Amino acid sequence: MTTEDFRGDDAPKDDRRRDDDRVKDERGEAAPSLTLQSLSVDVLVVGVTYLDVVVADLDEFPGPGEEARAGGLTLCPGGIATRAVATARLGLDTVLSTSLGTDRAGALVRAALGQEAVRLDLADDLAGASTPVTVSVAHDGDRRMFTRDSLAPVRQPRMLLDDGMCRCIMVDLRPGQDEILPLLVDVWTAGAYVVADVGWDPSGIWDPAVLKPLSVCDLFTPNAVEAMAYTGADTPEDAARRLAEQVPLAVVTDGARGVHAASLEGTRPCEVFVPAVTAYGPRQRDATGAGDVFGAALVAGTLWGLPLADRLAFGALCAALSLSSLGGAPGAPGWTELQRWWSRALQQGDSPVLSRYEFLDSLLADQRCSA
Fold it and tell me: Residue ranges of region Disordered (predicted)?
């Protein structure tokens, strides 16, 4: 199938307030929380922020009782904050709604975010709470992650639903996070583009109830392992098809094997596969946060009105560029990195790559004009 029936029609429109049967019987009581007054933004990112401790450049992964030397180490914002940094670096006005502990980990995260164009209007400091920490060990083309969660809650911002308040909201779906649904109902009804992701379920239950909020989402971006676990599918392609029955656009990321997208919207079903792309030059060092960088770039392409295939290709490119740095947030590309890659692609003269990324030329020209 082709993308001809799905060329950006899912992007938020100027007249975005919706009235759809999907919002019926979904509300429930709203918990007391923050209010966004006079806050008009491109992207509101809501979820749990981690301090990522990224270890890379190992000769081998140590066995029990063994020690290995690492050539690379960095500390950086992780979790939902990776998406906030990635969208901000692409020029989108981004607000991060999250909670940070008042411990040293929280101070490190806040200091790092303070150097980015991410608005922290809704970032709470919770006295006495511990900031979640993930240790990510990059080895053999992927990463192993060790996480210490905390009890620090993320207060859900209640929107004053004025038109134009928020073009897009990005959230993580988690077990037991029922309070997210009323927020998503409100912003979806008001016309915001609602994007959901999901994380690893350490319990191994993979309860389908976690995906209930997809009824008021526009885009869902799980990775292949998560998508297959929640759907019972045997392949990422089949998982994307099954998820497309619950959400207008399902995009399943599969690392170096590319991404699979499926949609049942429009005049006929649509399926798109986009392979991974070379970064031209820098070697791959760390895949931590690459999926978050992909999702952020996909959202940016959606808000710019790009066709689906171009959005997916742009996301794959941004994810590939992030692999040369340690950590997803530090590696998220901006326009300088994208211009450098395009210049290298032109020098290489790889016709399939140049044809696939021809749209990038106009995006870069727009950025130069607005600079």
Answer: 1-29
Residue length of the chain: 371
Q: How far is CA 254 from the centre of its chain?
A: 14
CA–CA separation, 3 and 275 (whole Å): 15
Crossing angle of helices 308-322/335-348, nearest 10°? 100
Helix (H) or strand (E) holding 79: strand 70-79
pTM for this prediction: 0.88
CB 328 within 8 A of CB 86: yes
Enter the CATH code of domain 21-62+69-333. 3.40.1190.20
Q: Round to whole Å and give the CA distance between 28 and 16.
A: 23
Helices 359-370 and 308-322, packing angle to 10 deg: 70
Query: Using 50, 70 and 90 to split pLDDT, how confident is the model at 5?
Result: very low
How far, in Å, CA of 189 to CA of 77, rounded? Answer: 31
Local structure of residue 268 (DSSP, 8 states): S
Q: Which two tokens mark 175?
A: 């077990």
Exposure string over 139-156, b if 16+ CB within 10 A, otherwise e:
beeebeeebeebebebbb
Half-sphere exposure in the Cβ direction for 49 (13 Å, CA): 34
- Contact between 324 and 331 under an 8 Å Cβ cutoff? The reply is yes
| Digit-coded pLDDT (tens) for 258-293 | 999 999 876 567 888 888 888 886 677 778 889 999
Is 261:10 a contact under the CB 8 Å cutoff? no
Break the chain into its structural domains and give their ranges: 21-62+69-333
Q: Are 359 and 323 in contact (CB under 8 A)?
A: no
Q: Which amino acid belongs to residue 160?
A: L
